Amino acid sequence: FILMYAMYGPWLVLLTMSMSLGKYMCQNRTTNFRPNIVMVMSDAFDGRLTFDPGSRVVQLPYLNYLRELGTVFLNAYTNSPICCPSRAAMWSGRFAHLTESWNNYKCLDPNATTWMDMLQQNGYNTLSVGKLDYTSGSHSVSNRVEAWTRDVPFLLRQEGRPVTDLVGDASTTRVMTKDWRTTGVATQWIRHKAAALAQPFALYLGLNLPHPYVTDSLGPNAGGSTFRTSPYWLEKVMPELISVPKWLPLSDMHPVDYYSTFTKNCSGNFTEQEVRKIRAFYYAMCAETDAMLGQVISALRDTDLLDTTVLLFTSDHGDLAMEHRQFYKMSMFEGSSHVPLLIMGPGVKSGLRLSQPVSLVDIYPTVLEMAGVAVPGGLSGHSLLPLLSQSAARPTRPRPDWVLSEYHGCNANASTYMLREGRWKYITYADGLSVPPQLFDLTVDKEELHNVASKFPDVCRHLDKLLRSAVDYPQVSQAIRLYNKQQFAAWRKSLGANYTQVIANLRWHLDWQEDVENNEKAIDEWLMTSGFSSEKLKLSCVRPSTSPGPSFLPSRTSIPGGV
């Protein structure tokens, strides 16, 4: 069946599936039928690759399969563009500020009730395998210290420079072996356990791809700055369709974006070839991710479970892949905040492209409604079922026409809030006054290079009012500043005499050691301040000058300021 799709395209398969899907759509309306539910959640997958024109740059046959036989959301967003807070929002159905998911170290309590717990309590046989990452206490010491000290007015590189790594040969299909093993656990469970169950089941598969790999050469504290793949997966990429993103000059960047670029070690020079190569490797990693999704689809099809299973594919966030002179996430730009969301299965319309803005908190009520489980109150999300199926009941509360995302972690030196409504993306920071906002018209500025906040003050006021109706963001920002200081002070105290050595050897160690005395002094002074009084001063400290900052090794035929 999957081979038939790959050979003959979606329309023949649509014809063969339409009768069975129609049968279950009717059955769902007239009986107590409860579908199986399978979610595949990747890490750092750019949602724009799941529909045209982005889907043309790399072969993703199984995502294309989901798109043709199910529904794709064209404007799906993360609620926080970093791993743990994003997943906390997805599993809890609540915005990050409501669960106080401030960074990769501070997220949900281990006993928090997820939608998977709700399904299990209501008769579903459940299994979660692979990357979960939604509870507090994980990730590296460097990661949490960088988040706590983001208000300190120093500028230190926290990541390795993004690089590529080609491994294996044209027959090497399994590069991310950990993900392949996890996928194998999930598919074997489908074949040997789920197929024999009398009750419906729910399966969650969490993948690490296409998140960049840890750069081992940078030591035990290194972050993930290596884009690794094999010739086999690079063959799936259309090199002629790889775009080279435009960059603003460093001197024209918004101060928070410049801080992100610098701390991600991207303020040095890059050749156009380097940028193309990083993007090609990232797309190839997405192709490998797609193949793992294909394994799940094949297991469901081979066991005759596909027609009775709702299958979802999404991601915690995207990856900028050198857009805006950055890689990684931690940004409200589209490459980082726009996530894939595709759903297929009984009762779900086929071939539907929905432009309504949605976000990961919507998954919680959607899954419960599909399973016939009462949706609890207090959720931030809204069920997607009324958009997916004609048989869905009228929603009890109206769906807003906007989505909210927020970010409070490392690599951004101010709490960031994004509201997407219609053509507009509004981004504001901290208390809404001390840091200038950004406004992008995505209908004419898809690359988000033209901040038009000063040209459309009425639009900014309207969107800011909407944002404040969802979150008192100046108060939240202030609470996080206090939290960061308290956590850092407690951590420093716990180290005692070892503090000086430990803080000097985190991921920023190269830059830290250039001026140890002033860096320690900056932290001491930061701990003595309060409120937003130093915000403008802090941002002015990181404004770019004619020099990009500390010295970098130049690249051959380097292109200063952009590509």
TrEMBL record:
InterPro entries: Alkaline_phosphatase_core_sf, GAG-degrading_sulfatase, Sulfatase_N. It catalyses: an aryl sulfate + H2O = a phenol + sulfate + H(+); Hydrolysis of the 2-sulfate groups of the 2-O-sulfo-D-glucuronate residues of chondroitin sulfate, heparin and heparitin sulfate. It is found in: Lysosome; Secreted. PANTHER family: ARYLSULFATASE K. The gene is ARSK. It comes from the Eukaryota. It is an enzyme of class 3 (hydrolase). This is Arylsulfatase K.
